[in-house]
Specification:
The protein has 9 helices and 11 strands. By secondary structure, the protein is α/β, with parallel strands linked by helices. The strands form 3 sheets. The protein has a 7-stranded parallel β-sheet. 47% of the residues are buried. The structure holds zinc ion (ZN) (2 copies).
Length: 279
């Protein structure tokens, strides 16, 4: 990994090798953050009950809390402990039990699975888009996302328009106007439940070549009065920690957002987006 100048302040979406899609330890991720001048990160391993290889265990969460203290002393990086959890109607009890068990800094909600298909996985997304015509495919995804938000279980919702990851190529890249009503409904759900959302920078490396959520989606969220937003790289490897945070922050600023939130013990604290010269 090449060392870069300090470029941003926090990265609130990071995965470790506790799940099959990531490969590095929390310490390696924190070291990479420090090398990029990022002094606060949140670890958000997947919690998908019933999906082998994608469900962080209580023991692994305990390890994160222990490691966080050591990492702070050794590398000067503040590690917040969260999870990225799916709202699965059949596994709500497991999620509630996990949330009760730990003093998580942030419960990051995600809607990866619709109609038993994983929309972040290419093969599974192909199945999904072959079963449903584009408008229905997008609508079903957003309905599930809204139901997840309205469960009230999450502090922050991740990558709000994840459906475009493969939908861009597999569903004919529908324009925002085709699902604007869904986006407005999602934004209302965020506002009414007091749920924050995430500016996820991983999309810059995906076929959509833009952040999640898109610029017009950000405008709708702003219009709905939702102001609390976190930012994250969604890194699954140490050399991706902090990727594209500046571009993500610029997209937020362009949409009129002025602050970035970090979560500690479920509560947001804010830093000024405009005053932070590193953005
Ligand atoms: Zn995700
Ligand atoms: Zn993630």
């Amino acid at each position: 990994m090449t060392q870069r100048k300090a470029s941003t302040l926090c990265d609130f979406h990071i995965h470790t090798r506790n799940t099959d899609d990531a490969q590095d330890t929390l310490e390696a991720m924190a070291e990479a953050a420090a090398a990029r001048g990022i002094l606060e990160i949140a670890v958000t391993d997947h919690f998908v009950p019933g999906l082998q290889g994608y469900c962080v265990t209580p023991h692994q969460i305990e390890r994160h809390f222990t490691d966080a203290e050591r990492i702070m002393r050794r590398h000067g990086v503040s590690v917040r402990v969260g999870i990225e959890a799916d709202y699965l109607p059949g596994a709500v009890r497991e999620l509630e039990a996990m949330i009760r068990r730990f003093d998580f800094d942030m419960i990051l909600g995600a809607a990866h699975f619709v109609d038993w298909c994983g929309l972040a996985d290419e093969g599974s997304a192909r199945t999904y888009f072959s079963r449903h015509e584009p408008r229905a495919a997008y609508r079903m995804y957003f309905e599930h996302l809204e139901e997840s938000i309205r469960s009230g279980l999450f502090h922050v919702m991740a990558h709000l328009d994840l459906v475009k990851k493969f939908g861009a190529a597999m569903a004919g890249n529908p324009g925002f106007e085709e699902y604007a009503e869904c986006a407005e409904s999602v934004a209302r759900a965020l506002a009414e439940t007091g749920t924050a959302f995430e500016l996820n920078c991983r999309g810059f490396d995906h076929a959509c070549a833009e952040q999640y959520p898109s610029a017009p989606f950000l405008a709708v969220i702003k219009q709905a009065g939702v102001e609390t937003v976190t930012i994250g790289s969604d890194a699954h490897r140490a050399d991706a920690v902090g990727d594209h945070l500046e571009r993500g922050a610029a997209a937020l600023a362009a949409a009129g957002f002025t602050r970035i939130a970090r979560f500690r013990q479920g509560k947001p604290c804010f830093s000024d987006l405009r005053a932070d010269q590193s953005y």
